[in-house]
Design a protein that fits this description.
The structure holds two protein chains of two kinds. By secondary structure, chain A is mainly β. Chain A has no helices and twelve strands. The chains are: A mainly beta, B mainly beta. Chain A binds chain B through residues 33, 35, 37, 43-47, 50, 52, 91, 93, 95, 97, 99-110, and chain B through 2, 31, 33, 35, 42-45, 48, 50, 55-56, 58, 88, 90, 92, 94, 96-99, 102-110, 112.
């Protein structure tokens, strides 16, 4: 069974600094996808970035980048130049690519980030 | 705004009751997913429908059921409610069923269910 682990329940970061959110995963599948979502205090889930297991380059989307280390089974999210609006819960999720699994996402426990001015 | 709508936003009911949560996917999306977010169990996948057919099932209780209608909207029915069913229920949608593409899921704002 798939498992996603986010070991940092919460962290502070100074505005304009970078922050790295840890995510490790466990799967026996060769083909899978890794996602990061942001959940502000308002509650909605916002898709941030995606990394496929066969992608050779780390994914980047604006200030978000994903540090993908396949051998270590880690997919850490890096947020550069933090802004006050980055304060939120961040979830790492994995999708296995099998017909039986459909397209379900397995989520980690989340990391709460608070950006200090 | 993700384009996924959910109604109602908030729902307060009593134990033993039955409720229906409704979801309209983004225009063009064929898949609908239901997730439950609670303090003790985190975010959990419940069920996925693709173009009207059940595609995958997760940790969905027998007291819960769902369906996707021909117009692709979906409903999640929760019956014999218990205190532990209090949670935020998300609906998400994606274009396809997950094969071959990123097929990211776009989440609705959620329905917060409180069982008293």
């Amino acid at each position: 069974a798939q498992k996603i682990t986010q070991t940092q329940p919460g962290m502070f970061v100074q505005e304009k600094e970078a922050v790295t959110l840890d995510c490790t995963y466990d799967t026996s599948d060769q083909s899978y996808g890794l996602f990061w979502y942001k959940q502000p205090s308002s509650g909605e889930m916002i898709f941030l970035i995606y990394q496929g297991s066969y992608d050779e380059q780390n994914a980047t989307e604006g200030r978000y980048s994903l540090n993908f280390q396949k051998a270590r089974k880690s997919a850490n999210l890096v947020i550069s130049a933090s802004q006050l609006g980055d304060s939120a819960m961040y979830f790492c999720a994995m999708r296995e690519r099998s017909k039986a699994a459909g397209n379900k996402l397995t989520f980690g426990g989340g990391t709460r980030v608070l950006v200090k001015p | 705004d993700s384009g996924v709508t959910q109604t109602p936003k908030h729902l307060i009911t009593a134990t033993g009751q039955r409720v229906t949560l409704r979801c309209s996917p983004r225009s063009g999306d064929l898949s609908v997913y239901w997730y439950q977010q609670s303090l003790d169990q985190g975010l959990q996948f419940l069920i996925q429908y693709y173009n009207g057919e059940e595609r995958a099932k997760g940790n969905i209780l027998e007291r819960f059921s769902a369906q996707q209608f021909p117009d692709l909207h979906s409903e999640l029915n929760l019956s014999s409610l218990e205190l532990g069913d209090s949670a935020l229920y998300f609906c998400a949608s994606s274009v396809a069923g997950g094969q071959g593409a990123i097929d990211e899921q776009f989440f609705g704002p959620g329905t917060r269910l409180t069982v008293l």
